Amino acid sequence: MASLFSSRFANIANNQIHTSLDIGSGKVSCLIAKINNAGSIEIIGAGHQESKGLSSGNITDLEELESSIRKCVESAEKMAAETARSVILSFSSGKPEARILKIEVELQGSVVTEKDLEKVYDSLRGQNTFVGKKILHVVPLQFSIDGSKGIKNPIDMYGEKLSLDVSIISVEENAVKNFYRVVNKADLEVSDIIFSPYACGLSVLDEEERDLGVALVDIGYDLTTVSIFINKAIVSTSIIPLGGALITKDIAKIFSLSIVDAEKIKIINGQLIEGAVEGGTTIEAKQLGVDNELLDPIEVSRAHLTQIIKPRVQEILETVREKILKSGYNKLITNRVVFTGGASQMDGLLYLGSEVLDKKSRLGRPKLVSGLPDNMSGSAFSTVNGLLKYISTESNDLKPKIVSNNRDEVNIVVRFNKFKKWILENF
Question: Which CATH architecture has domain 208-363?
Fold first, then answer.
């Protein structure tokens, strides 16, 4: 029986070089890897930089973001001793939307063939419901023949009517153009764009979790994304404009600390369970000010720190709960919630998350990959790892069949800019 989906690594030469680039509000991350035709990944270069020129996932300064991308990629290139020419890119802004569509094709009692599937794809191409939107993913939820659901591969089966339910992830087209623009300005081509939660899910979720149903909650720098997977597809996604940066700013304001020092205290000493630390214990920190080296350090009470952090995290979790309930999939995901992202690593998050969401929860970390640096193996780097997973595994994403990704004109401009840069540097 013919296969419906393509295996990307089937056509990959042994040890072909691929580069993943994740542009987040807090940081830009890059991995350069060798992927062989068995789908095995070996990281040979890695880099990350503070993300400047971006706020709440939206580009605010092209030049600043271009500089962040360049520094990040150059760091990975130096480690890999390779030059990155194109990247597989991810971001989570642009007002993402998950939509379920049902497509039907008349069979008139005949056998389902590849041509019938092409009719389904043509029908999807003809949809006019995505004006001003860029389709990032088209993932089948299920085929059905004459109302019989749950069919995974309908080819060679008889029936009167073939139906396909698909999950389509789309974002605003102008947002995509802006991300293409800034990456191209950094002299890089974009081979593909992947929705961040989709890549993140490949990195931290088990295949069975994505199939049976799970809520993936990515608590990032200043955004939290809530994505629900069922049948290995995202069926609902939403963005909450709250993240770890709010907690950091609260600590900085209340204790009069720099943002850098407040972030360190949050990461090292952040605690969400009151009473877990002795009330009298304190942390020393530098005072905020130009001459802070001359000032006496201040003492931050650990108990007071918990009292500051916990309400903010509860606010995020309660909003997550609202989004899950509003999605209509709350009962289908039962007891499965996975937390990931840089701000998900605070002690007590899983306990508090289970309490607020009334579901069992676990922390999602990237699956072990050969060569991955220790400082990029945590939850904060789930997405950039997932991009490589997307390249190296068999895909059920029908996007290549539905959407043209021809970027030849853009790529010619990128190549010209690289040639011009080489001329200026060498003559």
Answer: 2-Layer Sandwich (3.30)
Helices 62-80, 173-185: inter-axial angle, 10-degree rounding: 60
DSSP state of 378: S
Architecture label for domain 97-171: 2-Layer Sandwich (3.30)
In CATH, what number does 1-95+172-205+366-427 get? 3.30.420.40
Which is higher by pLDDT, 169 or 416? 169
Label residue 4 by pLDDT band (50, 70, 90).
low
Domain ranges of the chain: 1-95+172-205+366-427, 97-171, 208-363
3-state secondary structure of 192: strand
Cβ-defined contacts of 321-330 (< 8 Å, 24+): 321/356, 321/357, 323/226, 323/238, 323/240, 324/215, 324/226, 324/228, 324/357, 326/238, 327/228, 327/235, 327/236, 327/238, 328/236, 329/213, 329/215, 329/228, 329/230, 329/235, 329/236
Q: pTM for the whole thing?
A: 0.86
State how far the Cα of 394 lies from the Cα of 397, in Å rounded to an integer: 9
pLDDT of 188 reads 95
